[in-house]
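Worked example 2:
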Amino acid sequence: MFIQRFLLLLLLIQLIGCSNSSSTPSTINRVGLLLEDTIDDQGWNSKGYQGLLNIHSNLNVDVVFKENINTEEKVRKAVESFVTDDVNLIFGHGRFFADLFTELGTTYPDIHFVSFNGEVQGDNVTSLHFDSYAMGYFAGMVAAAMTETGDVGVIAAHNWQPEVEGFHDGASLSGLKTNVHLKFVEGWTNSDVALTYFDDLKRTGVDVFYPAGDGYHLDLIEQIRKEGLYVIGFVGDQSDLGESTVLTSTVQHVDYLYELVAEQFNKNELGPGNLRFDFQDGVISLGDFSSKVPEGIQLQVEEAIRNYIETGELPKEPIK
């Protein structure tokens, strides 16, 4: 926890040093949050909601949120409502909001718009990007080290997710040939499709899975647990869902990032444009290891992560 807090402090200093002053007001009136789905998914959306609660509790700021804002019309109406409620910092919790916020930024110059993982423009528009290739890379290394069949599988939401490519490359380091199977649900929440892909991959011999979709990953983890197979958790630390099933998790500390960004805005130090974050910034990590993962593997992965934080270099050799 101390190391994580220290890295988050470094992130705050980095943001101060590299940011440009925004044209928006420097004091938060109220903070608004738009979510494509609901806050009770125990994944991406719940982390955004927790970030909003952090702002409310730690910065003593009034906050409001709206769920199921998943069309352009709904976004526009929600923003209009927020304007009436004196909101001047709006988070759109996902890539979906990026293009719309770029457009809306010109309409509402006194509001700062923040989204995730999309490219944005404008003096009062910011996009926060998780550089998730490395977290997928380390997950792939763990999967390759733990598979007994030589077959590992990703059930991802979209093929553009950097963690998917990272998982493939990390698993491919294995000295023994590891077959990496990729399936794409083409959406974040379709559990039926994801479970169908799970059945397909199980029949091919996959015994370690990476469900990289926060709307269906819990259903997959439950099914994987019932089948006695292994899984790498996604977005949050899912070790509590089955210590003998969840080998580790790729964790994005979205809730901490919300508070940091709000602090920056409150000081008139939040820069516009596209800001990127990785392990070095303290907002990405691996979760707890299962006792099923041998201590030697755990130590090698932890050392590889420390080296990556210090040098930016990913391992070129597999776990032995």
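Residues 1-25 have pLDDT under 50 and may be disordered. The chain is about 40% helix and 20% strand.
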